[in-house]
Amino acid sequence: MEKSLLAKPSDVVDRDREWALLGDFLADPDPAMRLGIVSGRRRHGKSYLLQALSEQVGGLYVTAVREEGRLPAMQRFSEAIAAHAGLRPGSLRLTDWREVLSNALDVSTRSPHPLLVIDELPYLLQHSPEIPGLLQHLYDERQRGARPGAGPGPRLILCGSAMSVMHELLSGTKPLRGRAVVDLRLGPFDYRGSRAFWQVTDPLTALKVHAVLGGAPGYRPVAARPHPDDGFDTWLTRTLLDPGRAVYTRTETEYLLREDPRITRHTLYYDILTAIADGATTPSKIGAALERPRNAVEHPIDVLESTGYIRREQDVLRSRHPVITLADPIIRFNQLITLPQAAAVDQGFAEQVWQQATPTFNSKILGPHFEDLARDFTRRYAHALLPGGLPGPVGTTEVADRTARTKHEVDVIALAAGERPQSPRAKIALLGEAKATVARRGTGDLERLERIRTLLADQGHDTSATTLALYSLHGFYPDLIDLASRRDDLLLVDLPTLYGD
User: Fold this and answer.
1) Comparing C-alpha atoms, which of 150, 154, 341 is closest to residue 249?
2) How confident is the model at residue 357, as a pLDDT?
3) Which of 146, 330, 406, 479 is most buried (most C-beta within 10 Å)?
4) Which of 471, 281, 279, 442 is nearest to 373 (CA)?
């Protein structure tokens, strides 16, 4: 395949690694059929990426529709096959899915670069659950029948936003298990890529936009006017808190939760998300917040985790229950800011609601998000600043201080490369504290980190090459900056450093 054929189009932002992976998938000259799976949350840009790929090679791209039934879906797929084959409309009427899929694969192989993309597959499975089994048979037939020198076989990509459905396609005894060569889970842009995509000049504004929308590229087309640089407060009240906008958080959260067919009791799931946003971090605490027993919330929590709406974060040093947090910024914003004042927002009082909610935003959204980005910075970019280069696992921990009868929460801890989490004598590459308060950080913050480093050394950890890192939203006092210039073990990370300015 010509190199120029798979040059990434200029309108596909970032995604270099993903484009290269899919390009390699298509460039495989093997005459046998090959299967790829692409999954990802709503608005992460899956369809945009696959449409661009299909256009680049002249592939057949067909997407399912949620509201469409079995027969209309087959007819629309038949029309797409006919159009791709150059037949007149209405000339192809296929009446079962085996015929539809077989014809789609056959038509795609007429191209020098055969590609068939079926987008939003979970919508089809709601009325046609036999499709994976049929694809298994077609796949196996095209393995046995492939002849050397016959040209590349069909390349099939299945895509969907219902994460649990897509992940189960290749699990256990499912028909397609062991047959995919690509299992691409498309995530959001990282915080630097998101700033560049939104073209936000001010790093603090970029941080706030990321704190409420994350790195999902699909939000920019529906929330780019007014631009965040024109004033974050104005932008937010006229987008996320505007009931007439598609990105209104109540509407968007409902769409997100409807993506997974297993989420049916929406009130319970909303209550669980609210409890987590308010700081309940374990099933027991979530159940207590809802006045329900733990076993009543464990299954919904598992569903929310499998869909990617929440995550469980393990302590890097200690064996204890993982901490449950929200993974989606817009859901967190909805549960903490929009829902408590939904009636007032619907009546047009967005500015007043936002003004009253600003303390909640600063303490429960911006603060925790800044800590998340400090850990992300440590994973992705700190290797250029650390003496040991690329670190190992990055996360959080608690360190007991028996003398002071307290526990120190560590916002950022990175083990040395090659170390395993929860190892009793792990080598520690970095200890960090991240604060989004308006106060600048000073020597008192450094002394706290030095105390924690001493405690960890006393517990048997190797801290001989540990870097102490302070992450600050509003900078540092001059004496701390002067101290950092004279110490090799102290790293100061402000907003410009965080964003690579």
Assistant:
1) 341
2) 97
3) 330
4) 471
